[in-house]
Specification:
The protein is an alpha/beta fold. It folds into two domains: about 5-210 and about 420-435, Aldehyde Dehydrogenase, Chain A, domain 1 (3-Layer(aba) Sandwich), CATH 3.40.605.10; about 215-410, Aldehyde Dehydrogenase, Chain A, domain 2 (3-Layer(aba) Sandwich), CATH 3.40.309. The protein is built from 16 helices and 18 strands. The protein has helices spanning about 5-20, 25-40, 40-55, 55-85, 120-130, 145-160, 170-180, 190-205, 225-240, 260-275, 275-280, 290-305, 355-365, 380-390, 425-430, 455-465, and strands spanning about 85-90, 95-105, 110, 135-140, 165, 185-190, 205-210, 215-220, 250-255, 310-315, 320, 325, 330, 350-355, 375, 395, 420, 430-440. A seven-stranded mixed beta sheet has the order 10-13-14-9-8-15-16, with helices on both faces. α2 (about 25-40) packs antiparallel against α5 and α9 packs across α10. The model has no long low-confidence stretch (mean pLDDT about 95). The structure holds nicotinamide-adenine-dinucleotide (NAD). Nicotinamide-adenine-dinucleotide (NAD) binds next to α7 and α8.
C-alpha cells in the first residue's frame, strides 16, 4: 500500500474523531464553494471530457453539470431539515422516556467512480458525503485521465486532506484504498467490480452503496405515440454514445407497431447525427467510445448477433482507430444472442417484438433486475401492471434518463443493478449513521414493576402486558 494513502487516511480519521461533526453552516459553506468552483471550471470540464472521449460540450452541460448543480442546490436547501433530530413515539410499556433519532456522519468514506459520467458520478456522491459531514477519499476512473486530473485540481483548491483526498490510479490503487477501514464505500461501476468492492468492504464491515448496471428495457405498447417514443429512446440511447448505466439497453415493441418504430428510430438517427454514414462519422454532436477494448467487445457482440440471425437495420460501422461506433439498430435479434445476455453499454440498439404482456414479463424477468424500465404508452395500465410483476430500480413512463436528475426521488437498483440508494435525502442517508438517543426520566420507577423479585402481582402484571 502506498504509505502516503495510509498516513493520509489515519490523519483524516484522527481529525474526524477528535472534533465534533461539522455543523450545518460549515456543510452548506462547503457545498456552495463546490458549486461556485464547478461553474468556474465549466469550460475546463467540457474540454477535459472532450479530450477523454470527445463528448459534445452541450451534452457535458446537460448530463454532467446540470444534474450536479441540482443535487447541490437541493442539499443546500435541506441540510438543516435533514440534520434535525427526529422525535419518535414508543409503545406504552416503554413510556416515561423521550426517543429521538440523531443523524450523525459515519466517518471517512471512500468514493470510487466510473468513467462514463466522470464529473457527476464523482462529485454527486461527494455532495452527499459533504452534506452528511463525512470526510472523503475520491478515486475517479483511470479511463478518463484528463477529467480525473482536473477533478484532483478542482477538489484540491477547495478542501484540505482532512476533508477530501482525491487519488488518481487504476484498479490496483482502488484495491489498495479498499484495504483501509473506511466507514462507508460508495461505488459506481460494473456489477463485476461491485462484487469485489462489497467483498473488500466486508473485511472492515463497512457499509456500501453500489450503483451498478444492467439491461434496462424500453417497452413500447401498441397505443404509444411512436414518434415521441422514438425521439426519447434515441435521446436515451445515443447520448454519451450509449455509454450510460440507464440507457435503454434494448427495445421490446409490440409487433403491430414494430416497423413504424424502427422507421422512426432511423429518422431520429438521421435528424440528430446526419443522413449518411459519412455525415454521422463527422458530426461533433456524438461522443466516442472510451477505449479500444470497449469498442472491440461491442464489435464482437454485434458480430455474434448478426451471426445468430440478427439484421442491421441501420449503422454497424466501427473504427478502432477513431474509437467510433455508428448509432446502430438491430432487428430480428434472437433472445439467446450474447447481445441479449450482457449489458451493451454502447450505441447498439436491439429491437425485439412481443404480442402479449406475459412475453414482456418473461423476457425482463429472465435477466437480472434492471436499473430502470422504460414504458411508452398513452395509458398507465401497462406501466402499473409491469411495476407489480417485475423487479426494477425505477419505472420511467414516456421518457428516458431524466429521472436521474430529480433529487427528490431515490436512485438505485437491486441485486446486480445495485445495493442501496443515492440522490437527495437518500444520498445523505447513505453517509449517515442513525443514532437512537433515548432518555429515561431519572424519577421514573415503572421499570421496577418488571424486574425481580417476581412477586405474584408482578407476574400477573407481566401476563397482562403480554396479552394486552
Ligand atoms: P468499472 O467497474 O470497470 O470501474 C469503475 C471503477 O472501479 C473505476 O474507478 C475503476 O478504477 C475501479 N475498478 C476497476 N476494477 C477494479 C477492481 N478489480 N477492484 C477495485 N476497483 C476497480 O466500471 P466502468 O467501466 O468505469 O463503468 C461502467 C459500468 O458502470 C457499467 O456497468 C455501468 O452500468 C455502470 N454504471 C452505473 C451507474 C449507476 O449510477 N448505477 C452509473 C454509471 C455507470
Amino acid at each position: 500500500m502506498a504509505r502516503s494513502h495510509h498516513t493520509l487516511f489515519q490523519h483524516q480519521m484522527a481529525a474526524f474523531e477528535s472534533a465534533p461533526a461539522a455543523d450545518a453552516r460549515t456543510r452548506i459553506r462547503r457545498l456552495k464553494a463546490l458549486r461556485r468552483h464547478v461553474l468556474a471550471y465549466r469550460k475546463r470540464i467540457q474540454a477535459a471530457i472532450h479530450e477523454d472521449f470527445r463528448k459534445p460540450r452541450q451534452e457535458v452541460d446537460t448530463t454532467e453539470i446540470l444534474p450536479l448543480l441540482l443535487e447541490i442546490d437541493h442539499a443546500v436547501g435541506r441540510i438543516h431539515q435533514w440534520m434535525k433530530p427526529v422525535r419518535k413515539p414508543a409503545p406504552l410499556v416503554l413510556g416515561g422516556a423521550t426517543w429521538e433519532v440523531h443523524r450523525e456522519p459515519k466517518g471517512p468514506s471512500l468514493i470510487i467512480s466510473p468513467w462514463n459520467y466522470p464529473v457527476t458520478l464523482s462529485l454527486g456522491p461527494l455532495v452527499h458525503a459533504l452534506a452528511a459531514g463525512c470526510p472523503v477519499f475520491l478515486k475517479p476512473s483511470e479511463l478518463t485521465p484528463a477529467t480525473a486530473s482536473l477533478l484532483q485540481n478542482l477538489t484540491a483548491d477547495l478542501f484540505g486532506p482532512e476533508e477530501l483526498v482525491t487519488v488518481l490510479g487504476d484498479s490496483k490503487t482502488a484495491q489498495e484504498l479498499l484495504r483501509l477501514p473506511f466507514r462507508h464505500v460508495f461505488f459506481t461501476g460494473s456489477p463485476r467490480v461491485g462484487r469485489i468492492v462489497m467483498a473488500a468492504a466486508a473485511e472492515h464491515l463497512a457499509s456500501v452503496t453500489l450503483e451498478l448496471g444492467g439491461k434496462s428495457p424500453a417497452v413500447v405498447a401498441p397505443d404509444a405515440d411512436i414518434e415521441v417514443a422514438a425521439e426519447r429512446i434515441a435521446f436515451g440511447k445515443w447520448s454519451n454514445a450509449g455509454q450510460t448505466c440507464i440507457a435503454p439497453d434494448y427495445v421490446l415493441v409490440h409487433e403491430d407497431v414494430r416497423d413504424a418504430l424502427v422507421a422512426q428510430l432511423v429518422e431520429q438517427i438521421a435528424r440528430r447525427f446526419g443522413e449518411t454514414a459519412a455525415e454521422r462519422a463527422a458530426t461533433p454532436d456524438y461522443a466516442r467510445l472510451v477505449s479500444v477494448p470497449h469498442g472491440e467487445r461491442l464489435k464482437e457482440i454485434l458480430v455474434d448477433a448478426t451471426d445468430s440471425g440478427a439484421r442491421i437495420a441501420l449503422g454497424g460501422h466501427y473504427s478502432a482507430e477513431e474509437r467510433y461506433m455508428e448509432p446502430t439498430l438491430l432487428v430480428d435479434v434472437p433472445p439467446d444472442a450474447r447481445i441479449m445476455q450482457e449489458e451493451i453499454f454502447g450505441p447498439v440498439l436491439p429491437v425485439l417484438s412481443w404480442r402479449r404482456e406475459n412475453e414482456v414479463v418473461s423476457q425482463i424477468s429472465a435477466l437480472p433486475p434492471p436499473l430502470t424500465t422504460y414504458v411508452f404508452s398513452r395509458r398507465r395500465a401497462l406501466a402499473l401492471s409491469l411495476g407489480g410483476r417485475i423487479r426494477t430500480g425505477a419505472i420511467c413512463e414516456n421518457d428516458t434518463l431524466v429521472h436521474f436528475a430529480n433529487p427528490h426521488v431515490p436512485f438505485g437498483g437491486l441485486a446486480s443493478s445495485g445495493v442501496g440508494r443515492s440522490h437527495g435525502e437518500a444520498g445523505f442517508m447513505a453517509f449517515t449513521n442513525e443514532q437512537t438517543v433515548m432518555r429515561r426520566r431519572v424519577g421514573g420507577r415503572l421499570g421496577r414493576l418488571l424486574a425481580p423479585p417476581w412477586t405474584p402481582f408482578k407476574s400477573r402484571l407481566l401476563e397482562w402486558v403480554l396479552r394486552s
